[in-house]
Structures are given as C-alpha cells and as structure tokens.
C-alpha cells in the first residue's frame, strides 16, 4: 500500500511538471473608433470603423517542451471586423496566421504553414505602419511594399536563426503546390536584423511570382494584394536608434511590379506593364510618461508606371501624428491624424490621394482623423 502511495505521488509530480512545461494561450486585440475623412469619392464622411490602427485578431498559440532546449510550437490566428463580425479573409478560419513547427535555443526555429514574410518580420518593426501593434492608416500608399502585412504567404516553410552577437537572419519559401507548375505562384523572402545597444538595423527581400492571380498557391486572389502581378519584388533597409524615451527610425523600400492584372482586391482596377514605388520614411516615438506616448511619421513615395493607357510618375507626401494614453497594459485610447498629398499623375487612376484603409479622394489632398480605443486579452 505504501509503495502505491509513493508511486501515485511520483506520477502526480511528473504530470504537474509536464503540464507546467506546456502551454496554450488564447489572445486577441480589438480596435474600434470614429473616423472623419474630408473627402472619400468627393464627399466628407463620419464613420465607425475597426482596425484603423491595429488589426483585430483572436488566436491560439502554444508550446510544448520536448527537452534539450527544443519545443514544439504552433499559432492559429483569425482576423475579423468588429463592426459586422465577419472574418477579414473570407472562406478562412485562421486567415492571418496558421503554422506549426519546432523551436530550438541552439539551432533556431522552423515553421510550416501560412506566415508573415521577411519584409513584415524585419522591416515592419521599424515603420510606423507596423510598429508594435500596427498603425494601418500610416501605411505607405496602397501598402505597396506589404510592410503593413496586408497579405501572408501560404504553404510556406520559414527558418529563423538564433541570435549571434546581435545578428539574426530568416529565410522563407512559399510553395505553389501546383503539379507541373513549381514556380507558378510561389514566393520567397530573406531578411536579417542586427541589434547592438540602442541601434537596430534591418534589411529584407521578397519576391512573388503570379501572386494574387489564382485561387491557390503561395498568395491567392482572396488575399489583399494591391496589385496582383506576374512578378512582384520588394526590397528594403532601415534602422532605428533609441535615446532615452525617444526612438527615431529611418526606412527605405523599393517595390517593382511586372505585368499587373486587376484582381479581386486590387486598389486600382487597371493593368500596368510596369509599376514601381520608392518609399522613404522617417518616424519618431516619444514616451512622455509610462502612460502617454506620442508618435509621428513623414513618408515620401515616388512612383512610376507604364501601360496601354500611358505612363506617369505619381508622387505622394504623407504626414501622420498620433497620441496614445494607456489606462493599463491591456487598454489604451488614441487620437491620430493623417494628411496625404498626391500629384504628378493628373488624368490617371492615381490622380486622387488615397490614405490606406479609406476610399480614394476626388482631389489631390485627403485628411483623416480618428479617435478610438484598443483592448487586448
């Protein structure tokens, strides 16, 4: 009898230990507010909107300790719209992220599934459009470089290295999964970051082949692809510097599209033989107190396109200012304003200003202001 009691006690200890070494977490973020825009299609608008700053999500993430510094990990993440309860990506349950993999302290992390690309992972942390929880209104025009994670890569294998002396790298490949069409609608990306004290540097490259033009593959027509194209390439580099309560960031991205075709979620319903954008951003964050923070960014975007309707060199100036007050670690309120001026493309589809997340202005200027609340769980 005594041996049975001892055995039961030992087993209960092992069970408690195993439970402690594994975890599953339910998490999420809700963002809603009131938005005023001076011009959307020729009229001003007052709207209740969601995800003006941060994408609304709920998800599950978990890990299991396998011993020897290795863990099994997973993430299942759904995007949704609070105003109508619909999922962001129709026909999906976990349209934002869905992956499983292995994580090793010594060898790095390998994951398989629907995932962020290297541009989002490495450059997103530097841009105001995706700093921390995100800032969607501040995205570069049309989110042409995907720094604001408008789309994700399906069927992808991603490896992220451990950090060596401040340097970390990642590589990703998204399979087309098409028999006899290995390179049709595939994607690949690489990136690296280097951190040393107050300095953080990053660079990344992403390429898509026929992304967003088919119903299957690495990037489908169900994703929010601004300009579905035979080939899309994004490259960029930047960094930020922390000085006391202030963080100053600089970012450059260059995006090239070959043979674009209007798709389900295209922002401009017009084909182009060639289209490219250069985005130059400077931003600053300042923590006034532990509860109050201020942020701002200026972005200059220079574009060029050619096609059957002609060619032009559109340009955009965009300024974003934001103030945030945190009631707690979970809940904050914010006030943000964005001004955009577009020029250089009169008489073309790019003629009007077009702040991300809103409808296009009928003039070269657009102003938007929003006040809202975010809470996390």
Task: Please tell me about this protein's structure.
The chain is mainly beta and 377 residues long. The chain has one domain (31-376): Porin. 7% of the residues lie in helices and 54% in strands. It is built from 2 helices and 18 strands. It has helices at residues 2-20, 118-123; strands spanning 22-40, 43-50, 57-67, 70-79, 97-104, 108-115, 153-160, 167-174, 187-196, 199-211, 229-243, 246-260, 272-287, 292-307, 310-312, 315-326, 331-343, 365-376. It has a 16-stranded antiparallel barrel with strand order 1-3-4-5-6-7-8-9-10-11-12-13-14-16-17-18. A hairpin with a 2-residue loop joins strand 1 and strand 2. The longest helix has 19 residues, at 2-20. The termini are far apart. Mean pLDDT is 91; it is low at 1-20.
SSE blueprint and pairings:
Elements: H1 2-20, E1 22-40, E2 43-50, E3 57-67, E4 70-79, E5 97-104, E6 108-115, H2 118-123, E7 153-160, E8 167-174, E9 187-196, E10 199-211, E11 229-243, E12 246-260, E13 272-287, E14 292-307, E15 310-312, E16 315-326, E17 331-343, E18 365-376
Antiparallel strand pairs: 1-2, 1-3, 1-18, 3-4, 4-5, 5-6, 6-7, 7-8, 8-9, 9-10, 10-11, 11-12, 12-13, 13-14, 14-15, 14-16, 16-17, 17-18
């Amino acid at each position: 009898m005594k041996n049975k009691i001892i055995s039961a006690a030992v087993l209960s200890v092992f069970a408690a230990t195993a439970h402690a070494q594994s975890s599953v977490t339910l998490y999420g973020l809700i963002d809603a507010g009131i938005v005023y825009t001076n011009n959307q299609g020729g009229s001003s608008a007052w709207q209740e909107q969601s995800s003006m700053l941060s994408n609304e999500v709920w998800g599950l993430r978990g890990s299991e300790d396998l011993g020897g510094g290795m863990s099994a990990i997973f993430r299942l993440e759904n995007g949704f719209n609070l105003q109508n309860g619909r999922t962001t990506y129709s026909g999906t349950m976990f349209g934002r992220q869905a992956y499983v993999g292995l994580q090793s302290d010594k060898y790095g992390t390998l994951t398989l599934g629907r995932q962020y690309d290297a541009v989002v992972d490495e450059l997103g942390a530097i841009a105001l459009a995706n700093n921390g929880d995100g800032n969607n209104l501040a995205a570069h025009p049309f989110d042409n470089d995907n720094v604001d994670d408008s789309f994700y890569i399906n069927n992808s294998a991603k490896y992220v290295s451990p950090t060596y002396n401040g340097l970390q790298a990642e590589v990703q490949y998204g399979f087309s999964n098409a028999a006899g069409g290995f390179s049709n609608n595939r994607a690949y990306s690489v990136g690296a970051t280097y951190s040393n004290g107050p300095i953080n540097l990053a660079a990344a490259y992403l390429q898509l082949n026929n992304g967003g033009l088919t119903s299957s593959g690495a990037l489908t027509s169900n994703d929010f692809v601004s300009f579905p194209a035979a080939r899309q390439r994004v490259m960029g580099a930047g960094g930020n510097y922390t000085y006391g309560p202030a963080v100053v960031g600089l970012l450059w991205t260059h995006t090239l599209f070959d043979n674009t075709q209007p798709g389900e979620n295209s922002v401009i319903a017009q084909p182009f033989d060639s289209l490219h954008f250069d985005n130059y951003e400077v931003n600053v964050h300042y923590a006034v107190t532990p509860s109050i923070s201020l942020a701002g960014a200026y972005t200059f975007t220079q574009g060029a396109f050619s096609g059957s309707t002609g060619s032009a060199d559109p340009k955009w100036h965009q300024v974003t200012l934001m103030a945030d007050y945190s009631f707690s670690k979970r809940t904050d309120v914010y006030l943000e304003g964005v001004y955009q001026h577009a020029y250089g493309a009169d008489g073309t589809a790019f003629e009007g200003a077009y702040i991300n997340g809103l409808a296009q202005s009928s003039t070269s200027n657009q102003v938007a202001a929003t006040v809202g609340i975010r809470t996390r769980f």
